[in-house]
Amino acid sequence: MPKTFLHALITPLLFLALGSSGWALAADPPSRVARLAYVSGGASFSPGGERDWGRAIVNRPLITGDRLWVERGARAELQLGAAAIRVGGSTSMTLLNLNDRIAQVELEQGTLNIRVRRLDRGEVFEVATPHLAYVIRRPGSYRVHVDPDGQSTTVTVRTGLAEVYGEGRAFVVRERQAYRFFDTGLRNYQSFASWPVDEFDQWSNQRDRRWDTSPSRRYVSAELIGYEDLDQHGTWRKHREYGDVWVPRRVAADWAPYRDGHWAWIEPWGWTWVDEAPWGFAPSHYGRWAHVDGGWAWVPGPSKARPVYAPALVAFVAAGSQPSSGSGGGAVGWFPLGPRDVYRPSYTVSRQYFTNVNTSNTVITPVNVTNYYDNRNVGNVTYANQQVPGAVVAVLAAAFAQSRPVARETVRVDREMVARAPVAAVAPVAPVQASVVGPAAAPSAQPPERRRSRPAVAQTAPPPPPVPFAAKQSALAANAGKPLDTAAVAALTPAPAASAPAVKVVPATQPVAAPAKPASAPEPARAAVAPPARPPAAATPAAPPTPAPPAAPQAAAPAAAPPATGASPARDTRRQSREDEGRAGRPQQQSPPPGAPGEARPVAPAAASAASAARPPAAAASAAPQAAPPAPVAAPPAAAASPPRDARRQGRDDDERGGRRQQQPPAPSAVSPAPPATPAARADSAAAPASAAASERRGGRNADERRRNRGEEERKP
Fold first, then answer.
1. Is the same domain home to 264 and 128?
2. pLDDT at position 186
3. pLDDT at residue 705, as a whole number
4. Residues 344, 393: one domain?
5. Is residue 153 domain-shared with residue 111, that is, in the same domain?
């Protein structure tokens, strides 16, 4: 074997061994990712910091900064360990932050159904939307919807507990509650007792049942991503040495792990395996593979341990005669790690992470892991699967770097040469732009630019956007296939981020229970100033033959409008009377305070009396129902108790305001029966006979007095 290729393989190993003392100073990568677990219909994907979009592929790990667009009529699902996010059609979303403590998603438009099965103390699960930050506080089922036009955000809690944060306000959303918010201040909103279940909810419930009732759940941790896909694609068996193992069905006779898929560059892990099989995520990033009984079986890690994600549990070997590079010839090969093999990451990690990523994925003692961590001569390690026929898969370095499907690019390797080749933790291949986006063709659609640039409201500040790949490419080319650590990335002069999200972080506010607001009045301020509805044209009375006072036709129009929601009948009566006076050109009288008696003022009855006197009684009778408010508002009965003098004074005041004198009502025998009189009219009618009788008595007394005076004059001498 030429020395050049051995040098290319051994150099990364020495770099890792000599630099192991600095691992504890570096920030560890997250122990979880978001798996794109399901896609139905058109969906597009864009890595964080990049402008390029590609077709979304199942089993692609998504990290901080990645964006997803699901077209109309399509669906997708993301899995985050103990949580799942179902994505509806016409939905644009971004992973603002994803690590062991925070899962923060930005929803620009569309619908998300979220299922959270576990939420540790201090853990944050947040959805940032154009109007509010939706923070999940308990395990449960949740729904968030943002209108495509950006006018509202609807949040629903099926089960669990959530909080919404806006500018200066925060509300608690409990089980079976739903709210629709129209502004970032959370002052204009609707409340609903419950939100109806649609087809998207039913599909999400089916995915939940599949997740909860999976038989594989008995053999692995509940937070191991992708275990439910093992059920229909393989069989669980008991092995005498490894315990419970899973054996895939319907694979080729010469099939080997890590063959059907492609390599992608995903930081901070670097080279990451993306399996094409629907069940391929869990066996590729957790556990170990064992060659037993003439075939391959997957051995999961301890079911009680919290799993730690790994980009690919493989070791790399020399597979060709030329050094591998991202643009030239040469070949690179790999094989799966077996049970009790120690995995050495190609990325910078601490000692604790090194221990956790191994003990959570295979049965091995921490002492053995520590011994391997401190061993600088890693080339002397023996791996069980390196000697298995067909276990090593190799491709040309160019195909590796360009993320081409491995099954179509496999090259033959010399078994004896591979068995003697030193093992490396790093694939010495520099990534290119195609390594970041993946092999998928250009998507058919992308989210509208105006949707992606819409600012979002968040309660937790997201991290800075990822540095674009172009700003790191030259440094990565000189790093022999090893990803850059945090310090090296910070030292770069980053190019402007192509997809930096616009996020407005609102300060923390103590959440309270939101007052209920009916769904029929989504915008209270707008509804309060709306003019009253006009009555139907058919209900307008015909014009009377005699000229009618100007107040009468105007008073009939607003009478058909219903009273404001929640207003008392007395207040509606006063409001209606004031509107009638304004339309009639009369000065508006002062209404009593809200706690005043129900009579308010007798303007409306006096106006009705004037209208009755100015038009034929038949016309007045036909117009009377239109002049009265709806049923809840009636003429106050207290006006009937007014004394006759007050009634006459009120009538004179009304005549002066209307610029006319009150006419004498016609005699009852000269007209047809009149409509029922109002209380004020009855008071005037009662006062008229009393006044006539008083005049007659005064006239009689005067006549008697004149006769007595004449008699006295006649008796004088």
1. no
2. 96
3. 60
4. yes
5. yes
Note the pLDDT of residue 239.
96
Are 89 and 199 a contacting pair, CB within 8 Å?
no
pTM of this prediction? 0.70
**What per-residue confidence (pLDDT) applies to 495?**
55
Token pair recorded at residue 127: 């959805």
Calpha distance 668→617 (Å, rounded): 11
- Count Cβ atoms below 10 Å from residue 375 Cβ, excluding itself: 15
Helix (H, G, I), strand (E, B) or coil at 258: coil
Please check whether residues 417 and 470 belong to one and the same domain. no
**Is there a domain that residue 72 lies in?**
yes
Question: Measured between alpha carbons, how far is 247 from 296 in angstroms, rounded to an integer?
Answer: 7
Residue identified by tokens 């620009």 is 108
Q: For residue 183, give the nearest of 195, 170, 167 by alpha carbon.
A: 167
Task: Estimate the share of the chain in helix, then strand, then coil, as percent rounded to the nearest 5.
Answer: 30, 20, 45
End position of a domain, from candidates 379, 400, 428? 428
Tokens at 654, concatenated: 């009304």
SS (H, E, C) 324-368: CCCCCCCEEEEEECCCCCCCCCCCCCCHHHHHHHHHCCCCCCHHH
Query: Which pair of structure tokens corresponds to residue 86?
Result: 């179902």
pLDDT at 133: 98
Query: CA-CA distance, 713 to 708, in Å (whole number)?
Result: 9
| Domain assignment of residue 681, yes or no | no
Where are the strands (E) in 341-490, listed by range?
A: 393-396, 423-424, 456-458
Q: How many residues does the chain have?
A: 717
- State the pLDDT at residue 106: 97
**Contact between residue 260 and residue 280 where contact means Cβ atoms under 8 Å apart:** yes
Q: What is the dihedral of CA 568, 572, 575, 577, to 10 degrees?
A: -140
Residue 198 and residue 54 in one domain: yes
Residues 110 and 130 placed together within one structural domain of the fold: yes
Residue 233: other Cβ atoms inside 10 A = 15
Statement to judge: residues 252 and 177 lie in one domain: no
Pick from 486, 512, 538: which residue ends a domain? 512
What is the CB-side half-sphere exposure of residue 226 using CA atoms within 13 A?
A: 27
Spell out, as residue ranges, where the chain has pLDDT lower than 50.
1-25, 321-328, 521-694, 696, 716-717
Per residue in 610-660, pLDDT (tens digit) is 434 444 433 333 333 333 333 333 333 333 344 444 444 444 444 444 444
The CA distances from residue 194 to 9, 155, 160, 173, 179, in Å, are: 61, 11, 14, 12, 9
Please report the pLDDT score of residue 711 as a whole number: 54
Q: Are 153 and 180 in contact (CB under 8 A)?
A: yes
Q: How far apart are CA 524 and CA 173, in angstroms?
A: 21
Say how far apart CA 321 and CA 585 lie, in whole Å: 102
Query: What per-residue confidence (pLDDT) applies to 613?
Result: 41
Residue 564 placed within a domain: no
Please count the other Cβ atoms lying within 10 Å of the Cβ belonging to residue 191: 16
> What is the pLDDT at residue 341?
94
Chain-centroid distance, C-alpha 626? 48
Contact (CB, 8 A) for 573 and 600: yes
**Domain housing 312:** 3-26+214-428
Across the beta sheet with 295-299, the strand order is 234-239, 243-248, 295-299, 288-292
List the one residue out of 615, 616, 635 whose CA is nearest residue 625. Answer: 635
How is residue 547 annotated by DSSP?
Answer: P
255 and 292 assigned to the same domain: yes
Give the residue from 388, 396, 420, 162 showing the smallest Cα distance to 257. Answer: 388
Q: CA–CA distance from 331 to each of 318, 429, 554 (Å)?
A: 7, 10, 92
CATH of residue 168: 2.60.120.1440
Q: Does any domain span residue 365? A: yes
The count of domains in the chain is 2
